[in-house]
Amino acid sequence: MNLSQTNKKKEATGKVKLLVSDIDGTLLTDDKRLTPETVAAAQKLKDAGIHLCLVSSRMPQGIQMFFKDLHILTPFGALNGGEIIGNKGDVVSSLAMNTQDAHEVCELLQKNDVKAWIFGGFDWVAFDLNDPFLAHEKAVVGADVEIIDNIHQYKSRIVKIEGVSTNTVLLDELAEKINHKYPETVRALRSSDHYLDITHPKANKGFAAVELGKQYGIDISEIACIGDMDNDIPMLEIAGLSIAMGQSTERVHRHAHFQTKSNEENGWAYAVEHYILPRA
């Protein structure tokens, strides 16, 4: 579906050299699988000379776990763009939150009965061993979590705080409150119905797309971006070619040139075939 006429975006680029892709809800099915069609489409990108880089709110380990099946070893953006990791595993860029702000935000989440997780580099820290969300997340990202008593015990850089709750309305209310209180130093965006990503304001997927392009000397005008959630909007807004997944909300797809099929209908592979490869 061509959305450029309705959202008055600048026309889509005629040349794509790099695809920056979200993972959950985009590259993966709802049960976190790469379909054969998706793997085949990734290979077609490689054959066409188009680089594929992943960007996600996931920690680095939760992104690297897909490299083998996709046959890629490329730079990627972790923690919603807060960490840019080079193809040798080196940290190219890291945008940490202000420590005091991070402590206050964490305490605000906890006061509202929202679970708070702390991420920095390859670290994942939580405060409640009985947190019912931990087992699911550990299975999804293939990483272990460290349990501490309070945020003051964590002495490393804080790149992302994850607010976790089944109350989506509450997460949206907290996002509004956080963004209002810390307009210059913190940015809160939902990455799913149950997860609220809280980072440095420049730590977003738009920043990540630009930085990943720099690794190849590719301008954002020749980069395609694809995603499904609010935290994908910063890269969809600026990409030379932007594609929203079929199940994404109107708030997301109004920032895209095209809307593909849903992630349960091989929408990622469809987008590669119909919107990206013709621009190789």
From TrEMBL:
CDD domains: HAD_Pase. GO terms for cellular component: cytosol. It comes from the Bacteria. One of its GO terms (molecular function) is phosphatase activity. This is Hydrolase. The lineage of its organism: Bacteria, Pseudomonadati, Pseudomonadota, Alphaproteobacteria, Acetobacterales. SUPFAM superfamilies: HAD-like.
